[in-house]
Design goal:
With 120 residues, the chain is mainly alpha-helical. The protein has five helices and no strands.
Length: 120
């Protein structure tokens, strides 16, 4: 079954997580990374290794979504798994780090889950 809305949302979410990977792994101490995460250069220098680790995890989330898309309908369980991981991680991040994570990660993942479940 073709699900253009769900698969389009999943592709956008995967791209978002690739972008987060780039910010956290490569731009953390650069102006774009400092701005995105509202960090000072001093704090960014101290947390560089932790951010790179987070970036790597975001890359794995993107890879999982892309893998599910590549498999088509047979990859739906993989899409569900990685979208749920993103929604839970986003909720935790919103509760512990910044509320904006809820809007950037959790809500898009939940919408994509709903579209996937509805088959649209």
């Amino acid at each position: 079954m073709d699900m253009p809305v769900a698969n389009s949302l999943i592709a956008l979410i995967a791209l978002l997580h690739v972008y987060i990977l780039v910010l956290e792994m490569f731009l953390w101490e650069k102006p774009a990374g400092l701005r995105a995460f509202r960090n000072s250069p001093e704090k960014a220098a101290l947390t560089r290794v932790l951010a790179a680790n987070q970036g790597l995890y975001n890359g794995f989330l993107a890879a999982g979504l892309l893998w599910g898309l590549w498999l088509g309908a047979e990859g739906n369980s993989i899409k569900y798994f990685f979208l749920i991981c993103i929604a839970v991680a986003g909720a935790f991040g919103a509760a512990t780090a910044a509320k904006k994570i809820l809007y950037i990660q959790t809500i898009p993942a939940v919408i994509a889950l709903a579209c996937l479940w509805l088959g649209v």
